[in-house]
Amino acid sequence: MDKVINCLVAALTLLLSARGEVFKGDCTFEKPLAACGYSQGRDDDLDWEQVNTREKSPSDPWMPSGSTFMMVNTSGRFAGQKALLLTPQLKENDTHCVIFHYYLGGRDNSHPGHLNVYIKENNSPMGMPVWNVSGPASRSWGQVELAISTYWPNFYQIVFEAVTSGQRGLLAIKDVVVQGHQCMNTPHFLTIKGVEVNAGQTASFHCTVNGRKRDNFRLWLQGMGGREAPMKATKPWNNRRFIGTFDVENTTKGDSGRYRCIVHSDKGVGVSNYGELTIKQPPVPIAPPQLTAVGATYLWIQLNANSINGDGPIIDREVEYRTVSGTMYDLQPVDKTTHKIGHLDPDTEYEISVLLTRPLEGGTGAPGPPLKARTKCAEPMHGPRRLEVVDIQSKQVTVRWEPLGYNVTRCHSYNLTVQYRYRVAGKEETREEVCYDTQSRDPQHTIHNLSPFTNLSVKLVLRNPEGVKESTELEVQTDEDVPGAVPLESIQGSAYEEKIILKWREPAQTYGIITQYEISYKAVSSFDPELDLSNQSGKVVKLGNETTHMFTGLYPGSTYSFTLRASTAKGYGPPVITQFTTKISAPSMPAYDQETSLNQTDSTVTVLLKPAQSRGAPVSVYQVVVEEERPRRARGTAEILRCYPVPIHFQNATLLNSQYYFTAQFPAAGIHSPQPFTVGDNKTYNGYWNAPLLPQKSYSIYYQAVSTANGETKIDCVRVATKAAILVTQLTTPYIRIVPAPGDNQLTGAATHKPDAVEPEKQTDHTVKIAGVIAGILLFVIIFLGVVLLMKKRRTYHSYTYYLKLAKKRKETLSSTRQEMTVMVNSMDKSYTEQGTNCDEALSFMDTHNHTLNTRSECALTLNGRSECALTLNGRSECALTLNGRSECALTLNGRSECALTLNGRGKTAPHRHTSLF
C-alpha cells in the first residue's frame, strides 16, 4: 500500500511540475510531502513516515514531542535496511544555504542507525554521501548547513538516506529551509574546472573556497566513482578566499569521471560543482616495424606506425633498439617512414620498437611491439676445446669446456649442443641436447636421464647460421646404480610339502654388476588354523651368480610371502613380492600297537577310532574301509599299502568287482577323541551302509583320514584290525578250520608295504570243501604232534626210530588211494596259494606251548588211507605232505625257514612269518 501511495505522490509531483509549479525546497512536513515536492525513494527497503506529535502523542518515549517531522522507525528492522527521501530539483541562480534539523532517538547509548545526505547533480548517480551522522541517541534536534555551489543551468537534488542498525529507535529530519544567502558557518566554493592529463600522470584540481581558512575546516576531493584525494596544499588568494590543491596520482583510464570539492565545518558541509577529469592514453603502435634489409652491421626498417592504440595527435616519432642478450641501448629520432640503423655488431640479435608522442607531459607512449632482427654472422673459427668430464654419476655426466669468445664463434647468437651415443639392446642410439651455459667463465653441461653403467661417446657441436664445428669425442662410462626389480614373471616356485624351490632371473636393468640377492620370507597363512606361524620367517642372501634357492623346514599347507631384491655396489633395488603355498601333507594317523580289535563276532568287528594329527590342512573327514582278503597269485612281492581315494559303496562293490568298500564316514568334528566303532552294525553313516561282515570271508579293516585344501586331497590310512574267515565243511570226517587273515604287520600310509593282490577267480562250493579237508588234516596233525612231543619228550632214540618206521609203513598203504586226490588238488591250484603258511601255523602252535623236541624225533600220520605227513626234528626239522604224488609241503626250521607247496607239478611259494622254536 505504501508503494502505491509513493507512486501517486510522485505522479502528482510530476503533474504539478508540468503545470509550471516550481518548488523552492522548503518543507516543514506539516502538509503532505507532495505539497513540498518531496518524494519517497523507489529503490529502497523502507519508507519515511510523516509524524505530527502536536496533534498525536508520541508512541515511544524517545520520539520527540510537539513537532512535525519525517522519521524512519528502526525498531524491529534488520540491520542495513534503507529508506530514501528526495527533495525536488533545485535550480538556484545565486549563493544560497540549505538548513535542516535531524534527530537520533532511542535508548541511552543506543545507535539506531545512520543518516546520510547525498547531493545529486543533473540526474547523475547519487555518488558518495557528503554528510552523515551515526552517533548515539541524543533525544535533541541538531542543525546542519549545506553550502551547495551548483547553479543554473545545472540543478541538484538532496537525498536523505536512513540506514537501520538493527537497534530500536528512530531517525528523523524536519524544517528543511533554503536561505537566499551564504551559510553563516560553512564556506562556499567557486566553480571548479575540469582537468585533462595523460595516463600515468598526476591530475591537480584547484578549489577556491569563499571564506577565510579556519582550523576546523576539513577539505578533500571526492570522485563520483568513489576515489578520494586529500588536500595537498592551500594558499591564500586574498583576504576572503583561499585555494586548495588536490592531486590524483598515477591516473588511469579508470580514474576518468567527475570530481568535486568537499569542506566540512562544525555546523555543516560545503559542496562544489563537479569538474570532469579526462585521462588521455599516450599512443602506442599496433604493429611492429617491418624489416626491409639486413647486413652485417646495419638493419633497414619501415616504421609501420599508422595504426595506434591510444589518443592523438602524434607530434613526434622515435626508434628504440637494444640487443637481446646484452645491455646496449639506443634511441634515434625519425622524421621519415623508413630508417636505417647502422653501426651494429655482426650476428647480434636486436629488438627494434617505435615510440610515438602526443601533447602534454607524459605524452610519449610505451614502445610498440618489437621487431627482433639479427645481423649476419660468419663461420666459427673452430669447435669447442678442452672438453673434459668433471662429474660421473649413475644417471648423469657433466662435461666442461673452454669458454667460447666472439673470436671463435664470430656470432653473438650461436647454438652449442652436446651429442652423445650409447648402445641399448645391441642398437646404437644418438641423442642431442642444447647447452645453455655458454656465457659463464666455466661453462659446463650435465646430461641427465642416462642409463647407469653405460658407455657413452660425447662431443660438442658449435653451430651458427654460416657453419658447424665439432669438438673431440670423449669415451665415458656412467656409474653403477641400484638395480631394477627382479621380473615378477620370472619368479618360479616349485612347492612341495615342506620345501619350496625358488627360481628367478636377474633384473632386466642390472645397472651394474649384481653382487647378491636378498630373499626375505614369512609365513602369512595356513590351511591349518592350529599351526603356529610365528617362527616361520627368515632372510637368505645369495651370491650374484645364484638365481635359485631351496627353502626347507617349511610347514605343509602354508602360504609364504617372498620378498626378493637384487643388489649392486650401490645398494639394493626395489623389492618384488610374490607368494607360494606348500602342498598339504597327509594327516598323521595315530599309532596302533597291534591289529587287535576290541571285539569280534561272526559279522562284526569293533575297533577303536582315534583322531589323526593334521599336517598342513585340517582333517576333512574320517573313513572306515573294509577290504576283502583274497588269495594272491604271487608270493614274496613287496606289499604297498594303497589308501582308498575313490569311495565305493557296499552296494557297488560287487558290480565294480572291487575288493574294498567304504563302510562309514565321519566329519572331522565327529572324532575328537578315541571312540569305539563296530564294523558291520548294519547302520548307515553319512550315506555309507555299514553292512554286516560275512563269516566265511577274511577282511582287513582300514581307518583313513582325508585332508582337502587348495585343490589337493591327501589321505593317510592304517589297518586297525583283521578278521579271519570261519569255514565250516564236511568230507569223510567233520572238522573246522580257522583261516587267519593274510598280513602280519600293521600297515600305515601311502608308502607302507602291502602284498600285491592278484585278482582271484571266483570260488566254487567244491573248492571250499577241498579247503576244509586240508585245513582239518593240518589241524589234526598239529594237535597230534603237540601231544606226542609232550608225552614223548624224554623218549630214547629207539622210540623215535619206532615211530619213524611206523610212519613209513603207513605211507606205503596210501599209494592206492593217491589217484583219488588228484582232482581235488587240481581245483585248488588257482584258488589257494596260501596253503604254505599252514606248516608255519603248526610250528607256531608248538612254539606257543613251549615243546622241546628231541634231536631225532619222527612222526607220521595217515588219514583215510590217502594222506601222509612226516615231521623230522633233528636240528633240521622237516614236515612233508604228499598228495597223489604231486602235492608237497615242506618246512625246514634251521634258522632258514622255508615252505613249499607243489600242486600238479607247479611250485608256489609265498612269504610267511619266521617263527623260532626256542
TrEMBL record:
Subcellular location: Membrane
Keywords (A to Z) from UniProt: Disulfide bond, Glycoprotein, Immunoglobulin domain, Membrane, Phosphoprotein, Repeat, Signal, Transmembrane, Transmembrane helix
Main localization category: membrane
SMART domains from the UniProt entry: FN3, IG, MAM
Membrane topology: Single-pass type I membrane protein
Residues of the signal peptide: 1-20
Domain MAM: 25-185
Gene Ontology, cellular component aspect: membrane
PROSITE patterns for the chain: FN3 (PS50853), IG_LIKE (PS50835), MAM_2 (PS50060)
Domain Fibronectin type-III: 285-378, 383-481, 482-588
Protein name: Protein tyrosine phosphatase receptor type M
